[in-house]
């Protein structure tokens, strides 16, 4: 149901209009009545009606002034103007304000209902356009945010997925660039930049990806966009300089030291903690540490286990739990594979060594 506000200084006119709307006109309901322009302005601001039916002349604020004031408040209802014979030419000028229709008093019921039907169709069309606009904005917003995450986390797989969506949406052929597509791409980049800044807690200065001004075809538009994103991801990767100076590796080592007791600790969890994709993180870790993440974690756990085994008051199964193993049998197997001794053999051997050295 679309909402209607009636503004007229004649009470009987307001009553007749309400009766025709609620009894004979489909798809509308009256939400308010106003007896002068000032009251109509305030009630329009409050109710934001879909349709305003207003007399051309009213005390205080007249009909056309009411329309102008409402536009200043960014309200955009449909308008139906009512006028007397003496105001006919004045009412015609209202068409310049985008008024849907105007009619003379006394109101012809059949003409009024026909006008209301046309206005219903017009409002419905506007509603569909607004809905379509919202759906467009939402889709591009979601993909812009996902692209920002892929860039920041250096997730090439996700980035390729987002680029494919953009390619299919923009087009990659030689068709002429549509102005609305340039507008959408500009919106995409604004959202993406904002999302990147939220992820960029360290304040890394990031270059902007620009929409090309002179792209003639969809292919040129996408290629420029694609190259901009690839340059940006390379800039993010190289600018961090974490691995070259072992800064990230040191941070990872500290993180593993603090969390190795967690049996669920994994490469994926650690990569997410440092805001990197698992594949990228795993490759870089192996390059810098000389071993895989799991090998490094196992080696650390085994070294910690040796320390615990030197304490005869710590039970063997407790040693496994202290270094992230819930299953003692699995811990014992891993320990023997790493050291050549079972936990009990290692404890016995080390204790004899300590005793003989005294």
UniProtKB/TrEMBL annotation:
Keywords: Cytoplasm, DNA-binding, Phosphoprotein, Transcription, Transcription regulation, Two-component regulatory system. It comes from the Bacteria. One of its GO terms (biological process) is phosphorelay signal transduction system. It is found in: Cytoplasm. One of its GO terms (cellular component) is cytoplasm. The modification 4-aspartylphosphate is found at residue 55. Residues 3-120 form the Response regulatory domain. GO terms for molecular function: DNA-binding transcription factor activity; sequence-specific DNA binding. PANTHER family: HISTIDINE KINASE-RELATED (PTHR42713), TRANSCRIPTIONAL REGULATORY PROTEIN HPTR (PTHR42713:SF3). This is Response regulator.
